[in-house]
Amino acid sequence: MLSSLIKEHQTKQAAKRVVQEQKRKECIAAANDLTQALVDHLNVGVAQAYLNQKKLDAEAKLLHQGAINFAKQTQQWLALVENFSSALKEIGDVENWARSIENDMKIITDTLERAYQTTQEKPSSSQ
């Protein structure tokens, strides 16, 4: 009877160990699944942040390139405006020069006309 009780007890203990081992394995599997799910969830967030960062970097490069092009175009426009301003000044200088020449030519013309008239008057007065 004692030996049957011991065998029965050992059988129950063995069955409990099997059940306990099975539950331990299930618990470990569930913990692994939970850990994997958490890591996957974090990886999705990290992957999304990485993709967003790549997009931001690409946009920043485009913006930087656009700013460089804008600066070059601005410099070209400034050079054109400066050249145009210089050309206008030169036109103004040429216009002043032409007026000066015109005034000088009027003075010369007036002087020549007076000289001609004076020479025309002298011979007629001497006759």
In brief, what are we looking at here?
This is Biogenesis of lysosome-related organelles complex 1 subunit 1. The chain is an all-alpha fold and 127 residues long.
List the helices and strands and how they pair.
Layout: H1 2-126
GO biological process, one term: endosomal transport
Pfam families: GCN5L1
InterPro entries: BLOC1S1
Question: Whole-number radius of gyration?
Answer: 54 Å
Gross morphology: rod-shaped
Mean pLDDT: 90
- Cα(first) to Cα(last) distance is 186 Å
Which ranges are low-confidence, i.e. pLDDT below 50, for 5 or more consecutive residues? Answer: none
- The tally of strands reads 0
Hey, roughly how much beta strand do the residues contain?
under 5%
- Classify the helix fraction into a percent range: over 70%
Largest β-sheet summary? none
Protein name: Biogenesis of lysosome-related organelles complex 1 subunit 1
InterPro entries: BLOC1S1
Family: Belongs to the BLOC1S1 family.
Organism: Euphydryas editha (Edith's checkerspot)
Structure report:
By secondary structure, the protein is mainly α. Helices cover 98% and strands 0% of the residues. The protein has one helix and no strands. It starts with a helix and ends with a helix.
Supply the key terms.
127 residues; mainly alpha; rod-shaped; Biogenesis of lysosome-related organelles complex 1 subunit 1; BLOC1S1
